[in-house]
Design brief:
The protein is 47% helix and 14% strand. It has 548 residues and is α/β, with parallel strands linked by helices. It folds into 4 domains: 4-56; 75-294, no CATH class; 316-395, no CATH class; 406-544, 60s Ribosomal Protein L30, Chain: A (2-Layer Sandwich). Helix 1 (4-25) packs antiparallel against helix 2 and helix 11 (297-340) runs antiparallel to helix 12.
Length: 548
């Protein structure tokens, strides 16, 4: 059981953990997530409202009579004939126990519940005592009905409190003198035990043998037990764990049950004794009760909070495991599809490869910025998927679209663009065999003439370092310049050579087709007044015969 404030805290904790599960770990769609979170908030608000209402309707006066949680002795809920024991008081505190006055049967369960709510650690020390004073009852039928009502309330209390508390029956009867004598009968000691003050119990037979003057008390005890067995025990639907008997002056009504029983048994006139205002509490019966320590309210709250956190962690790990398995299955399916397609099925293979590229992009992003929470808790499997995905992507690439060997772009008077791979091997700056035909066909309209500068510019894609790309592009441009110069016998003053590396792309470098377009040598004529002025006659003769 928990106090309202602790239950409110547990409600807030539980609703917060449920919201965290729904938002971060469950993986719901946005609409379903919003609906589920709204439901959690509504349920939490309703529970908090009920707790606040029950707290405002609490029994502050009754709670004031409850023992503190640090109480380490028996707690007795006294039912039955409680007036001679309590008067108008709600409780009695003694050196042996804490006695709580239960005036009506319907108050028994409510008081036990409040006690469990206020001090749950005292539940193992809780018991119910049914007080019986035969001298206060004149009708046997009314007495039996009252006892049945108390026992029904006790059984209801035990069902709700999981078998707690035990029942003790204590009978107060007249002793015939001014003395007070306590006796006990338990399952462990089925014979009546005399309970002297501050000493261990003594069997009744031994006590009478030591004190012959108390023989009349033994006879009176025998009569009380016979009355109990004949009239009171027959109404019991629950067996008490202890029966206590107290022979002492008791308050009495005229013609009460005990007097009726004695008169019917002996035909003697009822004895006249002075009736006291109160009866002694059964502290001597409590001295033999073992003291137990239960679980405190704070510890129960901590245990429940730990249980909630454990359940949250288990569900979070379950959801994380499910999401990681889905990720593995998705990437594995994409890999299996890509491997099952032949290289000739270019369209299908390209689509499968694009799916792997999307997977790699997602995995790389999670590796840089951290995986989502729903994949965490030490179960993330994306790292081991990156290697096979990268291997598959780099093992095959779709063939680039056919790129014309010659692409003429008008820049100034004229610009000719040559595909570098049609002239050079990859990474090299030496013209391939047979590249002369390509150059002759491409440069038919590029002629050296005075006042025009032949500008040869080399370009590469972004593969490799910037320095190596710039040097390669420059060397390729020089190789083309040397071929034009030597083949056409063109003066070197007619040429300008430039190497731009990958600084001036004409297409994006993130695709094979784009990189192919960026690997090029561009030749253009640029007007320059003092260009190509040496050996005019040679220049004219070269123009006439169609050579450079």
């Amino acid at each position: 059981m928990f106090r309202p404030d602790s239950r409110q805290g547990l409600t807030l904790l539980g609703s917060g953990l449920a919201l965290l599960l729904a938002v971060e770990y469950w993986g719901l769609k946005p609409l379903n997530k919003a609906m589920f979170c709204g439901l959690i908030l509504l349920v939490a608000a309703y529970i908090l409202w009920r707790l606040r209402r029950s707290a405002s309707d609490g029994h502050s006066a009754a709670d004031a009579s409850l023992p503190p949680e640090s109480w380490c002795r028996p707690v007795i809920l006294v039912t039955g004939d409680t007036v001679p024991l309590f008067g108008n008081r709600n409780h009695h505190e003694t050196g042996q126990g804490w006695y709580l006055n239960v005036r009506q049967p319907d108050e028994l369960f409510a008081l036990a519940e409040r006690l469990a709510l206020h001090s749950p650690s005292l539940l193992p020390q809780l018991s119910v005592m049914l007080a019986v004073v035969p001298g206060l009852h004149a009708s046997a039928d009314v007495f039996t009905q009252q006892q049945s009502g108390w026992l029904r309330a006790f059984l209801q209390c035990r069902r709700v409190l999981n078998g707690l508390p035990p029942l003790r029956t204590v009978i107060w009867s007249s002793s015939g003198d001014d003395g007070t004598y306590w006796f006990s009968l338990t399952a462990e000691r089925p014979q009546l035990q005399f309970l002297p003050e501050k000493r261990a119990g003594l069997p009744l037979s031994e006590w009478v043998a030591q004190n012959a003057r108390y023989v009349h008390l033994a006879l009176r005890l025998q009569s009380v037990m016979q009355w109990y067995a004949g009239q009171f025990a027959a109404s019991h639907s629950a067996s008490p764990c202890q029966i206590g008997l107290c022979l002492t002056p008791v308050p009495a009504l005229a013609d009460n049950l005990w007097q009726q029983y004695v008169a019917g048994l002996t035909t003697l006139a009822p004895e006249n004794t002075v009736s006291p205002l109160s009866l002694p509490l059964p502290d001597r019966l409590l001295s033999g009760i073992p003291r137990r320590s239960g679980i405190s309210r704070g510890l129960r709250t901590v245990r429940m909070a730990g249980l909630m956190l454990g359940l949250f962690l288990a569900l979070a790990m379950l959801f994380s495991f499910i999401h990681n398995q889905r990720l593995i299955r998705s990437v594995t399916d994409h890999l299996a599809l890509w491997r099952s397609l032949p290289d000739e099925a270019t369209a299908a293979k390209t689509l499968a490869r694009n799916a792997l590229i999307r997977d790699r992009t997602l995995l790389d992003e999670w590796q840089r910025s951290g995986e989502p929470v729903r994949f965490g808790l030490g179960l993330y499997q994306g790292m081991r998927l990156t290697v096979p995905v990268n291997a598959a992507i780099h093992r095959w690439a779709p063939p680039p679209p056919p790129v014309p060997v010659i692409q003429q772009v008008v820049q100034g008077p004229q610009t000719v663009r040559l595909n570098s791979l049609s002239l050079f091997e990859s990474g090299r700056a030496t013209l391939k065999a047979g590249s002369g035909k390509v150059l002759i066909h491409a440069l038919m309209n590029i002629r050296a003439r005075p006042g025009w500068l032949i500008v040869i510019a080399g370009h590469t894609d972004s593969t490799g370092s910037a320095h190596s790309n710039q040097l390669l592009s420059l060397r390729r441009a020089e190789a083309v310049r040397n071929w034009m110069r030597d083949t056409g016998d063109v003066p070197e003053s007619c040429f300008a050579v430039q190497g731009y590396g990958h600084d001036r792309p004409v297409s994006a470098n993130d695709t094979a087709a784009g990189r192919a377009r960026n690997r090029r040598v561009e030749i253009s004529l640029v007007p320059q007044a003092d260009a190509c002025r040496v050996a005019d006659e040679l220049t004219r003769s070269s123009q006439d015969d169609g050579h450079f």
